[in-house]
Amino acid sequence: MSTNLSKIKRDKMLETISKIKENIDDDETLKNLSLIEYELTKKKYGLVWEEHEERVDLELKRQIPTFEEIQEREIIEGKENKFNFLLEGDNLHSLYLLEKTHKGKIDIIYIDPPYNTGNKDFVYDDDFVEYEDGFKHSKWISFIERRLVIAQRLLKKKGVIFISIDDKEQAQLKMLCDEIFGEENFIACMPRRTKSSGKTTNKISANHDYVLVYEKSKNQSLIIGLEHNDEGFKYEDEYVNERGKYKLNQTLDYDSLSYSPSLDYPIEINGEILYPGGDYEKYKERQNGNCKRADWAWRWSKDLFEFGYKNGFIVVKKGKNGLPRIYTKTYLNAKIQKDEIEGYKITIEERRKPISSIEFIESKYSNDIAKKDLVKLFDNSKFDYPKPVELIKTLIKIYNNKNAVILDFFAGSGTTGQAVLELNNEDNGNRQFILCTNNENNICEEVTYQRLIKVNYGTPKVKPLKFNLKYYRTNYIPRLNNEEENIQENLLLNIKNLIQLENGINIDDKKIKVIFDEKTIDEFSTKIDEVIECEKLYISSDILLTAKQTKLFKDNNVEIFIIPEYYFDEEIKEVQ
Predict the structure, then answer these.
(1) Which of 301, 318, 347 is the last residue of a domain?
(2) How many angstroms separate the CA atoms of 108 and 447, rounded?
(3) Best exposed site among 391, 542, 543, 572 by fewest CB in 10 Å?
(4) pTM here?
């Protein structure tokens, strides 16, 4: 059973006050003590819950969490590519260690936590939380609060977090996130269609959930919107590879603006002189001062037209009256901008549009599609409530960093991993994912990991997407330092795993090595063949390289990295 810490603390304080009151006769003091009792028992404004403690909380207090690499589950497809990670175990354990390796380094967090429906979807402290449980909300908030506090610290300054949730906990989660991430950093609560139809026991069919969106720092996130897919961009020219397709929807001349003599000039193209409005006589009248407030003129200045014409932004077509008319091209990914030096320049920039707050009500984001995603890989859904790949891809796509590090610490079926790999394949990105999930009902081994295997090698319905992966399992070592247990030696064995996790690398003891003591570095320095093969060397902060060693490594292009003391420094000090 979980321990209700808030109730224990409150009851203890109330009991103490009650005993004090028994020995006091002063009315004013008794009145003040009663006020204290009232403050302890009354409900405060805001999110208030009974704080509960999990088994994993106690384990983290008594033991030091570590990772164990499961070597046989490693995937290596490209030696030059960074490694992705699958972390098996309680995600609070994994987050504890990720805070050592990735504090302030995560670009995107997406999580799909249990919705706490009371239908055996939320396990707290090894027991299902039933619908009738009077503390079901407090247990859920205690559970998610600890994890979100660490998540906030993991995000970069420009980072963003996306959280899937439904009405069971949406209101509580919104208030909790306002406290943890800051109300000013709230971006949106986006409804998502979960299904189009189906049976329901409610009077109104529940066909949606939500995606809550917060940024780490106000107005700092790299959310840039979706690709602009206007069907009007249907024409191609010799610039299509660079500028994308273009559309013709505006003539250069029109009469709806306030008239300006500087925009009313003749244009000569292929020996033919063109005037705004196509009428030379009316052009002469305007030049003589006989013009309306809004009359015919060009939209572009003469200098801008000459630049645009020279660089392919102009098309001449015959109008309905047979007279030629000038049209300007609007390219999908290119536009003309002012340049302080040369006057004008062409800038290439992917056209985007802000994502709508109701973007995810389209059927392609529904659970029905998510199940089809899994069927393509497993021939059955193998998971009760998966999220569709398209949902996660869209969330990642609107973040303007193709080298982003994406964390999902409720990885479930592994949708986030597949979404990252597919998006990298589509836009030549180099994003990296870190997935955390427990192995309840063998989900990590039989669903999450197997999904990644199938994505890597492909199936008849899914093309292979090659990538690198390391598989870690959470573990503990005792917080002891005696003849049987040497905490420093035990932790040194685990530092290699943290170095790999932090840097996305594979320490093969050839190209990349780790050395903890001066005796080993001295021996290594004499083995020239090994030095030549080595590219990166991670050494303990206790090692002082000699001038000869420093020159040796520099001459052979060996990069030297000092192993961070923050990996296990606090834990070692605690038991010394």
Answers:
(1) 347
(2) 23
(3) 542
(4) 0.81
